[in-house]
Specification:
By secondary structure, the chain is of the alpha+beta class. The chain is 27% helix and 42% strand. It has eleven helices and 32 strands. Strands 15, 16, 21, 22, 23, 24, 25, 28, 30 and 31 form a ten-stranded mixed beta sheet that branches. Strands 3, 4, 6, 14, 17, 19 and 20 form a seven-stranded mixed beta sheet that branches. A hairpin with a 2-residue loop joins β26 and β27. The chain is flat, with a radius of gyration of 49 Å.
């Protein structure tokens, strides 16, 4: 959770006298996309300082969005400590406390320093001074001071004793003692402000004027919730907004705007210093005239020149200072002030839907509040609705047909319905003013329904030209709804049927209304009975088939011709086509028979040769020789007939194709 920790304003009077001036929060605009716009206003005199404190997670959003509007400003500067400020400062001291060293680590880092110690044992205390020679831990050390031994050296010799014997020590260098105290003071301050970042806005100006400070931070999304108290064709409608003040200061009498728009918003790491990676160039220890070194230096210079703007920007950030010079820009106030950042202009924006309570709002820090947006009476008609029926029996929904005459564009939210007590919950999507919407809140268990579908095609017209058959078909879609009423009284329901935008309703009751995707029919089901309700839709389809490729013709065309539904002109056309095709099939059949005969003659010839081989040297060989010669004559004759028939088939196919290209219907 992100929090705003606190703000104060210091007014500079004269040279150094500062007086705290309250900086009130006047406007809060909360968006439904997870950000909030905050605006503070104050009357200022001469130069002023703003001091703001934020959570770590908020500082990036603040730096990205902060805007100051001051018509009397000559110079505006934003200063803040970077994330590295504390550690860099600690590292700059003579005694480095940036890593929070132990006493052992601190002393070891100061070897060579001159220190004064008060060391004692059972024989009494001694005052010793010398330079720190060593700090060592015994090999069996348990991290206790008695296991740490230090050695001092002076002109008289070396003194060694356990750290536990030292009751007091200090550095002879007063600067080290002072800087150690400064480091500890900084660390002490950091304990209470570790999760906070301070920003100081310095404005140099003159005269009395209004100063505005505005910014955008992440914030909890505001929510909407509704109540509907059903009556007879109307309902009491209550719209509520839930607002969370997650900040650490009270909102007192602020103007609150709740917006359902979606501005583009993102986070960017602006607070952390950013350093680019620079190449490391070896020192030219063997002479700078080397060709390799010269070429490397040229490449490096080009690279550095390209990076200069980025490096300068990083340098500016490292200085922890933002500066805006306004002397030559008279449009500064209108650019960064009310025109862009005021909530009032957002209220007037056409692309947003804004809700502003009529009276100022006060919410204590870390508290939430439900705010009534609207209480009114709306047209609300109770009904039962069948929607999206399938093959399985389902119950219809209990619904309310709500018309939004509230004058508001209502954002999406949960809605609870009451009808002589609690009736159910529902959700509504964004509901523009004057729009009508069905809201379901339960099942009607006394009714049930299911749906079956069927499609039929009827050919309306055919035409043939250039070898293509064009077919115009009427396709009829029929959805049959089976509705059952188990109530002891007749029930009138709304039946929703999906719209097929390629089709039109056909021999079907006119719907009482339609949405972008549904027809709505009103159907009355008698008491304790069932009924069937058909919704018919039709469309005209145009298809084209190649007569040269008969396989493209679908069964609808064949059924149309063969079942006697087609007119005589169509039947006559297909008879002509069939007669011409039969000529091709007759020749094709003759060719097939000749090829079968040739195969049989070849088989008989092979069998005869095998018999001759088996009866070689006998008197029967002569008979087989005579038969073999006879088979050869038949094979030659059949082969010749096959070649002739193939040519006849090719001619007939060509004639058939020419016929298909010229015949018309």
């Amino acid at each position: 959770m992100k929090h705003i920790l606190g703000l104060s304003l210091l007014s500079i009077i004269g040279v150094s006298a500062l007086h705290a001036i309250e900086l009130p929060l006047t406007d809060v605009t909360i968006f439904s996309s997870g950000v909030a716009f905050y605006e503070h206003k104050v009357k200022a005199t001469n130069s002023v300082n703003f001091e703001l404190t934020f959570d770590n997670e908020q500082i990036d959003d603040f730096l990205k969005s902060v805007a100051v509007s001051d018509p009397g400003a000559k110079k505006i500067t934003l200063e803040y400590d970077s994330s590295e400020t504390l550690d860099k400062t600690l590292q700059s001291f003579a005694i480095d406390m940036s890593k929070r060293p132990t006493l052992f680590e601190l002393l070891k880092s100061q070897i060579g320093s001159e220190i004064s110690v008060v060391a004692g044992d059972t024989n009494g205390a001694k005052n010793l001074s010398g330079r720190l020679l060593s700090v060592e831990r015994s090999s069996t050390g348990t991290n206790q001071n008695s296991d740490i031994h230090i050695s001092l050296v002076d002109s008289s010799g070396i003194y060694t004793f356990a750290l536990s014997q030292i009751s007091q020590f200090n550095f002879s260098d007063k600067n080290k003692n002072d800087e150690l105290l400064k480091a500890l003071t900084l660390l002490d301050d950091d304990i209470g402000n570790r999760d906070k970042k301070k920003v100081i806005v310095k404005i140099e100006g003159a005269g009395n004027r209004d100063v505005k400070l505005s910014y955008v931070l992440g914030a909890p999304v505001w929510k909407t919730t509704y109540r509907l108290l059903l009556g007879n064709n109307e309902a009491v409608f209550q719209a509520w907004a839930i607002v969370d003040n997650s900040t650490n200061f009270d909102w007192e009498e602020i103007k609150l705007n709740l917006i359902t728009g979606k501005p583009v918003s993102f986070r960017q790491d602006l607070y952390e210093p950013y350093y680019i990676t620079r190449p490391t160039i070896d020192l030219p220890v063997e002479g700078a005239a080397k060709l390799e070194m010269y070429e490397s230096a040229v490449a490096t210079n080009e690279m550095m020149m390209g990076a200069l703007p980025t490096m300068k920007a990083m340098s500016d950030m490292a200085m922890a200072e933002r500066y805006i010079d306004e002397e030559a820009d008279d449009s500064y106030d209108s650019t960064l002030g009310g025109g862009v950042f005021s909530a009032s202009s957002s209220v007037q924006a056409d692309t947003k839907f804004v809700f502003t309570p009529n009276t100022p709002i006060s919410i204590e820090r870390q508290k939430s509040m439900m705010i009534p947006l609207k209480v009114t009476t709306l047209p609300a008609k109770k009904m039962t609705v069948f929607s999206n029926l399938g093959s399985m029996n389902v119950n219809p929904k209990l619904c309310v047909e709500l018309t939004n005459t509230s004058g508001l564009n209502l954002p999406a939210g949960a809605i609870t319905l009451y009808d002589e007590g609690y009736s159910g919950d529902s959700m509504i999507a964004f509901l523009p003013k004057d729009e009508k919407r069905l809201i379901s809140y339960g099942d009607d268990l006394l009714l049930s329904g299911r749906r079956t579908t069927n499609n039929t095609d009827t050919i309306l017209k055919m035409s043939a030209v250039d070898g293509y058959l064009k077919v115009e078909t009427e396709r009829l879609y029929t959805a049959t709804y089976f509705l059952k009423n188990s109530d002891s009284k007749a029930r009138t329901v709304i039946l929703e049927h999906p719209i097929n935008y390629d089709s039109t309703l056909y021999k079907t009751d006119k719907p009482i209304e339609q949405t972008s995707s549904m027809y709505r029919f009103q159907v009355t089901i008698p008491a304790n009975s069932s009924l069937e309700y058909a919704v018919n839709e039709k469309r005209t389809l145009s298809n084209q088939y190649s007569l040269l490729i008969e396989s493209t013709l679908n069964k609808v065309v064949y059924n149309y011709v063969n079942t006697g539904k087609a007119p005589s002109s169509v039947v006559s056309f297909f008879k002509k086509v069939s007669d011409e095709k039969q000529k091709v099939e007759d020749i094709s059949e003759k060719l097939s028979e000749l090829q079968s005969t040739l195969q049989a003659l070849n088989n008989e010839q092979d069998r005869t040769r095998k018999n001759m081989e088996a009866l070689a040297g006998t008197s029967e060989v002569g008979n087989f020789t005579k038969k073999l010669l006879q088979l050869e004559d038949e094979i030659v004759s059949t082969t010749s007939e096959i070649e002739k028939t193939k040519k006849d088939l090719d001619k007939q196919k060509e004639a058939y194709n020419d016929f298909l290209k010229t015949v018309k219907l």
